[in-house]
Amino acid sequence: MNGRQWSNPDKLYDVFTLLSVEGGNVQVESVIPSFFEDKDILNRIPNFTYPCKYDGVGVELYTFVLTDVESKFLYGFCRFSHDQNLIMCILSRLPWFEVFYSLLNKISEVSNGVDGGSRSILELLEAVYHAPVPSPSKSCTVLRNTGMEFSFEGPDLDQLATIPYSRNLTEYYSAVDYNLMITVFTSILNERRLLVTSKKLSKLTACCHAAAALLYPCYWQHLFIPVLPEAVVDFVSAPMPYIIGVQESLMQKVRNMELDDAVILDLDACTFTNSFDDRSLLPSDWISSLKKSLQQPANKDSVSLAFFRCMARVVGGYRDGLKYHDSELEFNEETFISSTHSNSERSWRENISRMQYFSQFVDDRIAAMVNGETHYDPFDMEIARYYDDKNGAKYKEWISSVKKQGKKIKTKGQHTITDLSRKVQEKTKKAYKDMKTRLDDRGKKEYSAIRRDTPTQHKTIIGQTVRPSRPRLLNFHKVCYLTTLLLIASLSLSL
């Protein structure tokens, strides 16, 4: 379970904002619904939608992340027309990249139609706002049989990402070769401080999200900032693991800062600056198997599946450390490390025992087992496949025994997993809180004039649809135009 995600959000999105960019300054023009009153969030949105002054062309689709005090993610899906210097942003608790990119495209399509205009856009946004959140793989249609009809399917977040449907993975696979992808993967497994840079925000944020997602079914537990605002650029010196995306125009400033042992992935140059040899920390046969799989032509979920199978080897041995003692399920670190006869695997187990994503993974698995929620899922099948228990009978027998015993969760060893998780989470929350405070202070000074009570320039969102399933989102010939959006600031959604 990903502790950064919201459980059962009651609406598809929280707020839509329209922002203008002029002379390197960004201004919130409109907020929908107008009753959205979280000024902390509204103050932070401009910094992330336009993190720094840079030259761009055409239209970019990208996603930033805001984090609340509980380290829950809010996703900001953006569509930036550089020619007209206007940004549309939808803030949602759902990591539904393709759905919201399609919605942003639909808004442009509607406004470009015969009956387009601000009222049509507001009708579409209102319909989506009040639409029920569909279950995984269930479809939803709003404004059916109208020129503004919008249909989508609820993504199944437990399914592996596929090419070309997943824009994030497709962009990442197009940006780096398989060898570099493996090197970055092993750096993330060892919880390095990873800086990612590119000129294009679309490429930058997609690759940050994709690289982190390859840990599945584990999740990155530390700082995750796919696009870093210039106002808090010194976060690159944070003394903790992170994945941070930096727009290329800021890299000169970043390179002059204290980076210590940070590793740097340059997506445009396809280079990786790294003082570690993280690949050598994993058993060589794991790397060889992963490399062999990635050398094959990418087809649907083949890339995700290659890393998924590698993760079964990386964390699958956790079961060796689970023991019952006095009806309590325990994770014993010493038993976990010593249970393998392979020197290379034993060395890796010593290493991974210190990793926060592994600690959280074991916590979640133990909780599921004790609560009777565990079933023989695809990851269990991959674990059994690696350990030569091909029919899974041994593991099914073991999991059945786990369900019948013990009612408590207890961990045992050099440290308790829960205590380690709590310490890291508190440190991460403190860092996010510091960023929020600094951006709020800046926002109060620079972006406090949100024009909901004053006349606005009339702008209509007009533009060409950008297909999120294409590997290169910027390979199109026409640019998007945005001119007059009538009444968007004064009209609100009715509850």
Would you give an account of this structure?
This protein is α/β, with parallel strands linked by helices and 495 residues long. The chain has helices spanning 39-49, 97-111, 118-130, 167-175, 178-189, 201-213, 251-255, 284-294, 302-315, 333-338, 343-352, 356-370, 378-386, 393-404, 417-446; strands at 15-22, 25-32, 59-67, 73-81, 86-92, 139-142, 150-153, 193-198, 223-225, 242-247, 263-266, 271-273, 322-325, 328-331, 408-409, 459-462, 481-484. The protein has a five-stranded antiparallel β-sheet, with helices on both faces. The longest helix is centred in the last third of the chain and has 30 residues, at 417-446. The protein starts with 14 loop residues before the first strand and ends in an 11-residue tail after the last strand.
Topology:
Layout: E1 15-22, E2 25-32, H1 39-49, E3 59-67, E4 73-81, E5 86-92, H2 97-111, H3 118-130, E6 139-142, E7 150-153, H4 167-175, H5 178-189, E8 193-198, H6 201-213, E9 223-225, E10 242-247, H7 251-255, E11 263-266, E12 271-273, H8 284-294, H9 302-315, E13 322-325, E14 328-331, H10 333-338, H11 343-352, H12 356-370, H13 378-386, H14 393-404, E15 408-409, H15 417-446, E16 459-462, E17 481-484
